[in-house]
Amino acid sequence: MGHSPLLAGLKHNNRLEQVLAKSDVENAGYLDGIVLDLEANVIETTMANLFWVKSQQLFTPDLSLAGVSGVMREQVLDAMRSLGYSATVGQFPLEAVLDADEVFVTNCILGVAPVIKIREVEFVKGSLTKQIQEKLSLC
Fold this sequence. Notes:
4-amino-4-deoxychorismate lyase activity; 29% helix; lyase; Aminotransferase-like
């Protein structure tokens, strides 16, 4: 995904990159795929924001140069603060996600959805994902 700092984080109608990425993923036989930026940093998936947990610490990509900061993403970050956790927002390679203890995606349709497999790496629905799901189901 190219950098577009003026549009980064915003929902807008110029979604050609996401449409093309989603088409590539579906043509390869997958439901969703992780989108990387020009420097191979994780940005999002083709249809959702991405979060992962390592050693009870939550991580999510920085979306200041590319990607969409969805409503559910902000709700997750707020829920984390209310649960007493902090989230690390930054630039991360795909390997950081593949090394996670748990992974989940968010959007307004899915809510908070655990990821069970990326490539050949399997994940469990972890305790932090469950806490966030429970917290947001009360909202």
